[in-house]
Amino acid sequence: MVDKSQVYGKIKECLVEALGVEEAEIVPGARIMDDLGAESIDFLDIVFRLEKAFGIKIPRGGLFPENILSNDQFVKDGKVTARGIEELRKRMPCANLASFEKDPRVSNFSNLFTVEMINRYVESMLG
Amino acid sequence: MSRACSAERGGTPGRPVPLSVGADIVEIGSMARLLRHGTPRLRRVFTPAELSARGGPASVRRDLRLACAFAGKEAVFKALGRGWGQGPRWREVSVVRTPGGRWEVRLSGGAERRRREMGASSIELSVAKTRGHAVACAILYG
User: Which residues are bridge partners to B96 per DSSP?
Assistant: First the structure.
């Protein structure tokens, strides 16, 4: 049985160390890029830290999916299409797509990466 | 990559025409943190050439050198119109400094397909660094 508070504590630790932010900033709804200031290199650091902390292997595109925004079937006129949303639902089952669906602009995509989403993903990996 | 005549694009015959540009900046400290994860994990990001390249004087620290390579990769991704998570994989863009000091870009897989789609015949990459940051600018020419 996964100890959820222990998992969340470890995730907080990983994010604090990777991003150099205060622990108080790590709240479930915090967006990894816009609120915590992560850059692409930080995403790699986060993935590697999570792997070490939990003894898991995060497959490429597992936590941060690839090739969605570059696919014309999934993006039209700067917005993720209904088909793209369906694809996101499959590839990002741990993300909360509700608000993104209302305003699916590509520029809002990074808002899907939140502390809560990472927490759910790690919990799902740990079974 | 060789350069092609681009008169059909409105350029001067024999002179390459810039198609797109991409730039990136990387904190050396971020790279230093990434290096602590060890070579097996770094192999998921860097090509063997990037990991083994000396990239200039031996005194150039590994974090500085790989920060330059990382900034170079990201700049190329952006010039290809594909930012982070939008297409090419990390190792499909290899960026290595030649003994002469130029930065050589090698593309494979999705990155190479994207270059062809864009009609680019060459890529120029410029990289600079301070103690704190590495910056890179890539220009695709048609």
Answer: B104
For residues B40-66, average pLDDT: 82
Report the residue of A17, A19, A50, A66 to disrupt the B interface, i.e. the one with the largest count of B CBs within 10 Å. A66
pLDDT digits (tens, 9 = 90+) for B114-128: 999 999 999 999 999
Contacts of B85 in chain A (CB under 8 A): 40, 64-66, 68-69
Report the share of chain B in percent with pLDDT over 70.
85
Regarding predicted confidence, which is higher, B56 or B49? B49
Token pair of A3 as six digits = 């100890």
Phi/psi region, residue B66 (left: phi>0; alpha: psi -120 to 50; beta: rest), is alpha
Residue B23 identity = A
- Are the beta carbons of A66 and B89 separated by less than 8 Å? yes
Q: Do B84 and A43 make contact, defined as CB atoms within 8 angstroms? A: yes
Residue whose tokens read 């939008």: B86
Q: Is A73 left (phi over 0), alpha (psi -120 to 50) or beta?
A: alpha
Q: At what angle do helices B62-79 and B28-35 cross, to 10 degrees?
A: 110
Mean pLDDT on A107-118: 93
How many Cβ atoms from other residues are within 10 Å of residue A89's Cβ? 12
Dmax of chain B from CA atoms? 49
Chain A residues in contact with B45 by the CB 8 A cut-off are 44
Q: At what angle do helices A40-54 and A4-19 cross, to 10 degrees?
A: 140
pTM of the model: 0.86
